[in-house]
Amino acid sequence: MTDLGIPDTGTPESGADLPDPAAADRPKGSGRPRRPARFRPVRPGLLLSVLLIAVLLPAAFFPHLLTSRDPLAAVPHDKLLPPGSGHPFGTDQLGRDLFARVVHGSLLTLQASGLAVLVGLVVGSLAGLLAGYLGGIVDDALMRLTDVLLSIPGLLLSLALVTALGFGTVKVALAVGVTSVSTFTRIMRAEVLRIAGSGYVEAARASGTRAPAVLLRHVLPNAAGPVLVYAAIDFGAVVLQVSSLSFLGYGAQPPAPEWGSLVSDGRNYLATAWWLSTLPGLVIAATVLAANRIARALDGADTEER
């Protein structure tokens, strides 16, 4: 106690007891300020992923930009040549240029993957939109059907569907697309339930706007963002699933080149011609990893410094 009767709380003996003005700008658990986002360097992995996709997408529609060779032309005396200057990926057991077959195979594989994502996006978004906005028995019926689809492994369901539909690239795309409908439905429904209680939606309803107009003008544009991001994330998995079905023989029939069928054709020559399966397999792996890397960037997964 001091002479005036005021308790003595003591005085700080060092600057360590004083609050640090810069501490509020630092993330918890970090001893240095975070670098502003606009000054962060471009990550090499993301840049390489964008470059790879930028090369693959034109190749899927204009394969002659990368190679002038005919993917179906067989040259028997050039069979099983290793990768070299004349044939970057070597040749197969019939003397066909493997690089040309991989480039032309991207047309079938990427188009099938894009169609599969589109089927899942459109059908799943429509189902989720109706389930979240209408509610009641519509919501219950659609979500129970979604639960049934989610309970079946994706590859097993796509195998059952493609067996029923028949062989072919388009049918493989439809089968794979159906397997992703349930996830799109759940994401869209969650977004619609979040947005349906917003003030502008309630105001639109109170003003007498019809339900289809409310859905198209107010709910759908605001709920589309997370669904489109998931479509980008799902693309890599779809490429892998389409290639798996093609590997099993359900995709394009020979001699049409497709990434999965190219890997399957070379498995009998692994001991003598490793490039027949390895190089198309590496292309599939690089495409899947690049798509996932770009999707992570779109999702904001690396906005924080590591």
TrEMBL record:
It is a multi-pass membrane protein. The chain crosses the membrane at residues 45-66, 115-136, 148-166, 272-291. Keywords: Cell membrane, Membrane, Transmembrane, Transmembrane helix, Transport. One of its GO terms (cellular component) is plasma membrane. Its main location: membrane. It is found in: Cell membrane. Residues 1-37 are annotated as: Disordered. Residues 106-295 form the ABC transmembrane type-1 domain. GO terms for biological process: transmembrane transport. It comes from the Bacteria. It holds the Pfam family BPD_transp_1. InterPro entries: BP-dependent_transpt_permease, MetI-like, MetI-like_sf. Belongs to the binding-protein-dependent transport system permease family. PANTHER family: D,D-DIPEPTIDE TRANSPORT SYSTEM PERMEASE PROTEIN DDPC-RELATED, OLIGOPEPTIDE TRANSPORT SYSTEM PERMEASE PROTEIN APPC. This is Peptide/nickel transport system permease protein.
